[in-house]
Design a protein that fits this description.
Penicillin-binding Protein dimerisation domain family; alpha+beta; seven-stranded mixed beta sheet; Beta-lactamase; cell wall biogenesis/degradation; cell membrane; Penicillin-binding protein 2a (Domain 2); disordered C terminus; coiled coil; five-stranded antiparallel beta sheet
């Protein structure tokens, strides 16, 4: 029997399948390896090289700034810098490394670099460290800060998630408004989220799974990830808030922020590629060595040397030199286009540092290197040497500058014993024959070294310079000065709840009062009026005017002498000596009278004043960009002239008209009508706003014709022009309609609308012709201009140049602060020569008479400090001078604000051959002669050799010579060849 046996499987069949599968797998692996190592070899090699390649930037020293004798006013010194460079290993050890670094810095009393705009005050409250008090500028900086850190994207996704293409202006404004609405606290929480600060809670040696789990533990699982109405900003803020709450269990708020500062610096630097970020600047040598010894435990951390700006004489000439500062958010784009690194570079922020930034900045260098996993250099790939900037040589003399600055400070300190509000001032000395500035001081001043190292400006200095406590200051000011206005009236709160210096009372250290402040000149203007009167022939050098009452009056306009003094017979010389208002009122009147008594005659004084640089003809080409020629930022004031005065009147709010219309009666009482309100009101409808604006614009349009052939003097004609605008207003104003209804209900009389339009139009015509036109064309302004009052508002620099021009016989020079620019090796690149910009050619007879009168000012015992400084026997060199007490308001205004008039003083010397001219102003000084000691100190510094030659024992008889000349800081010309070594 045949039995079928089961088939036996072949022994190797099971393994055959396995071998095939393995062969396939290994073939794939080998193929992938071949793909990666052969085909994609170059791509991955480049990626690996890029990941291990870093650029180490080398800052270039800025050029040196010298005085006229070669003294170094601004230079550079070597500075130890602590940096951090990103690598994978460094990032994993980031919090451990930073913790060690923070401890070392704290133990050695060092500061780490803190450029983060968002800061914490001593009360634990957040605030933005804006380096400006301008609210609009603050908004721009805040916007740039938030946009650079990604909040812009979250806002856009929240508001316009599905938007494609460019945003409209309206949408962009909505985005900006949303960004500004994010509170400072929420911004902090967002940054906690954005910089993954939850990682601070991870243990050392954490795994990626632990990191992911911790990150997810703070996520709000209730959020619908698919919703189209998600608020991405809110989600991020809430996430950051939860992380912060957990962090605060182990860290202080300040410690959390410290890590945030470094993370922020890394983020901002990342836009520039793989580059090191600075953790601390200007650390001590010992601290640098401590860190250097521990570098093996601090991956990514390194210590290096780099130049930092240094001002050897501190505050000396600070407003001339200026300072350097980090690039602000609003300036980033502009500077980046010019090749700057906005995250690390410092630029000139004011003064010469800013004006000559393109010359002073050097050419940066750097090295491209390969680094290992700890960020240490393993190979140099490319090196570019840095090159210093060019040098700027100034016209100022260090010793004269010191005398000016210290004497100004001491004089104000002395005056404050009786005038507590005398906290500000300025003085400028100019070389008569060249226009070169020898000294220029503004008080209060500052130390530019405070800004030389980014992030090292103390909170106290920041508050003093940029964000003063006006509540504290205002309270003290009112108490010291007995000001009658309240704190809220003097320093009102703006819409943001911040106090504003409405009346410009706070002394601002960063403001250059010498070039930017505008003040009335007062009686220091009288020598110029003398020249104009003499050259026009309306007065002579010998004519005497008989002042019998101290009161001058012509054609219905009158004014009095200072302090009601009666001077009797007064010629030109005595008029200057006594500062006779009477004499100069008459001179101003005669100038107008002689030249036709019309609107052109109103400029008969101004045309001479402009020759001295005190304003410009508003109808001339120079009016578009008026300047003294100085290289740094300046303001430019104007003297009285018909055009400027007319524009000022037209642009002044129509308070008297508004009040008259609200009362329902014209200023003369001739026209009575139902009251109407044309004052500005943000709650008005657009239609009503336009109607009010149309009335005001029509008035301005009519007033613009004053002084032209089209001037309107007919009341009926003007009233007819105004009528259509009044009708429109009455139709759209609900408030006016209600007033009409109330009137009719009260009187039982029907209001005739045409009669109302006629009465109001005539009231406005009366305002235009009787008040405004009369004020615009009145000769009263040229009379007040003649004594330096009225609309005269000029900078101290303009006034100093006027004095130099007068002393130089009418030849005016362009004002100069810079002599030349040289290369780092000393070659002259550019040289600046004196430049004559105008010449009046004053006859010597006239000039001599004015000089004699000004000489008498200083030799008259009634002129207080001027006499004590320059009277006969008090100073060996003949000095011409003129005092000026310049009013900016009424006595009532002084009492309300707790202020006093300006104390102005001009002088030049020697009398017969003037070399130097000076102007000084003491805000709230009250007496011009109090500035004389400042002038004396400047003359002593300038003429020191001549004074000692005239009198070898001069120093022993002059306290100011010892204090301001002999005690001046020593020269440092030997430092001109190089920079200081690292400290």
């Amino acid at each position: 029997m045949i039995v079928n046996k089961p088939n036996k499987k072949k022994k190797g069949s099971t393994y055959t399948v396995f071998y095939v599968i393995m062969a396939v797998i290994f073939s794939v692996i080998i193929g992938k390896l071949l793909y990666l190592q052969v085909y994609k070899h170059q791509d991955y090699k480049e990626k690996a090289d890029t990941g291990s390649t870093r650029f180490i930037s080398e800052k270039a020293p800025r050029g040196i700034i010298y005085d006229s004798d070669g003294n170094v006013l601004a230079t550079n010194k070597q500075n130890y810098v602590l940096t951090y460079m990103q690598t994978d290993e460094a990032d994993k050890a980031f919090y451990s490394s930073m913790s060690k670094i923070f401890n070392i810095l704290k133990e050695n009393n060092e500061k780490f670099l803190d450029d983060l705009l968002l800061k914490i005050n001593s009360s634990g409250k957040f605030y933005y460290n804006f380096k400006t008090s301008d609210t609009e500028a603050q908004k721009l900086v805040e916007l740039r800060f938030k946009k650079d850190r990604g909040l812009n994207d979250l806002v856009q996704n929240t508001l316009y998630k599905d938007h494609k293409g460019d945003f409209t202006d309206e949408q962009l404004n909505a985005i900006n408004d949303a960004l500004l609405s994010i509170s400072i606290d929420d911004t902090f929480y967002y940054l906690v989220d954005n910089y993954n600060l939850y990682e601070m809670l991870l243990p050392e040696g954490y795994t990626s799974a632990e990191k992911k789990a911790l990150a997810n533990s703070f996520v709000d699982t209730t959020i619908d990830q698919t919703s189209k109405n998600r608020d991405y900003v809110k989600e991020s803020v809430e996430y950051g808030k939860r992380v912060t709450e957990e962090l605060l269990k182990e860290y202080s708020l300040e410690e959390i922020r410290n890590y945030m500062v470094v993370k922020d610096a890394i983020k901002m630097q990342s836009y520039e590629g793989y580059k090191a970020v600075t953790i601390a600047n200007n650390i001590k040598r010992d601290t640098a060595f401590i860190i250097y010894q521990k570098l093996s435990d601090l991956p990514g951390v390194d210590v290096s040397l780099e130049p930092v700006r240094y001002y050897p004489f501190g505050n000396l000439a600070s407003h001339i030199l200026g300072y350097v500062s980090s690039i602000t958010g609003s300036e980033e784009t502009v500077y980046e286009l010019m090749g700057y690194d906005s995250s690390t570079d410092l630029v000139g922020a004011s003064g010469i540092e800013a004006a000559f930034e393109d010359q002073l900045k050097g050419n940066k260098g750097g090295t491209t290197v390969k680094v290992n996993s700890q960020g240490r250099e393993t190979e140099t790939l490319f090196q570019l040497e840095s090159y210093p900037g060019n040098n700027v040589h100034l016209t100022i003399d260090k010793d004269v500058q010191y005398a000016a600055q210290e004497a100004l400070k001491d004089t104000l300190e002395r005056i404050r014993q009786t005038q507590p509000s005398a906290t500000r001032g300025a003085v400028i000395a100019i070389e008569v024959k060249t226009g070169r500035v020898l000294a220029m001081a503004s008080y209060p001043d500052y130390d530019p070294n405070d800004f030389a190292i980014a992030g090292e400006l103390s909170d106290e200095k920041y508050e003093q310079y940029f964000s003063p406590d006006l509540t504290k200051f205002g309270t003290e000011h009112i108490k010291k000065t007995n000001a009658t206005k309240s704190l809220d009236e003097l320093f009102p709160l703006n819409e943001d709840g911040l106090r504003e210096d409405f009346y410009d009372i706070y002394p601002r250290p960063m403001f250059n009062y010498a070039t930017l402040g505008k003040i009335p000149p007062g009686s220091v203007f009288k020598p110029l009026t003398s020249i104009a009167g003499l050259m026009e022939g309306v007065i002579t050098t010998t004519e005497s005017m008989n002042d019998t009452s101290g009161w001058w009056e012509r054609d219905g306009f009158g004014a009095e002498n200072f302090q009601h003094k009666v001077n009797g017979p007064t010629d030109l010389r005595l008029a200057l000596q006594k500062s006779s208002n009477y004499f100069y009122y008459e001179t101003g009147y005669r100038l107008w009278d002689k030249n036709g008594r019309d609107v052109e005659a109103l400029d008969s004084l101004a045309k001479y004043v402009w020759k001295f640089g005190l304003g410009v003809d508003p109808n001339s080409p120079q009016a578009s960009n008026p300047s003294t020629g100085i290289e740094i930022e300046e303001g430019f004031g104007q003297t009285y002239n018909f055009t400027s005065w007319k524009n000022k009147i037209i642009d002044t709010p129509m308070y008297s008209l508004v009040e008259s219309l609200q009362k329902g009666v014209s200023s003369s009482g001739q026209y009575i009508f139902i009251p109407l309100d044309i004052s500005k009101n943000e709650d008005d409808s657009e239609e009503l706003k336009n109607a009010k604006e149309a009335i005001k614009n029509k008035i301005k349009e009519i007033l613009q014709k004053v002084g032209t052939d089209e001037q309107m003097n007919d009341y009926t004609e003007v009233a007819n022009l105004m009528a259509p605008e009044i009708k429109t207003f009455m139709k759209v104003s609900d408030k006016y309609k209600q007033s009409v209804t109330d009137y009719e209900a009260k009187t039982g009389k029907k209001v005739d609308s045409d009669e109302q339009v006629d009465s109001v139009s005539n009231a406005i015509a009366e305002y235009i012709i009787s008040e405004q036109t009369t004020q615009i064309t009145s000769f009263a302004q040229i009379v007040m201009d003649a004594i330096g009052q009225g609309m005269n508002n000029l900078t101290p620099l303009q006034l100093a140049n006027y004095v130099a021009t007068l002393a130089n016989g009418g030849e005016r020079h362009k004002v100069m602060l810079v002599d030349k620019i040289t290369s780092p090796t000393g070659e002259i690149i550019q040289e600046f020569k004196p430049e004559v910009v105008d010449n009046l050619e004053i006859p010597s007879e006239y000039l001599q008479a004015v000089k004699e009168g000004m000489r008498r000012v200083n030799t008259s015992s009634e002129n207080g400090m001027a006499y004590q400084c320059f009277g006969e026997g008090n100073f060996p060199i003949a000095v011409c001078g003129k005092t000026g007490t310049a009013d900016f308001g009424t006595q009532e205004q002084y009492d309300e604000q707790g202020r006093k008039p300006y104390g102005n003083y001009i002088s030049f010397a020697p009398m017969d051959d003037p070399q130097i001219a000076i102007f000084s102003t003491l805000y709230d000084g009250n007496k011009g002669s109090d500035g004389a000691p400042i002038h004396k100190a400047i003359y002593e510094a300038y003429f020191k050799d001549e004074l000692l030659k005239l009198n070898p024992s001069y120093a022993s008889n002059s306290e100011s010579f010892v204090k301001y000349v002999q005690n001046a800081p020593k020269d440092n010309t030997s430092e001109a060849e190089g920079n200081a070594t690292a400290e």
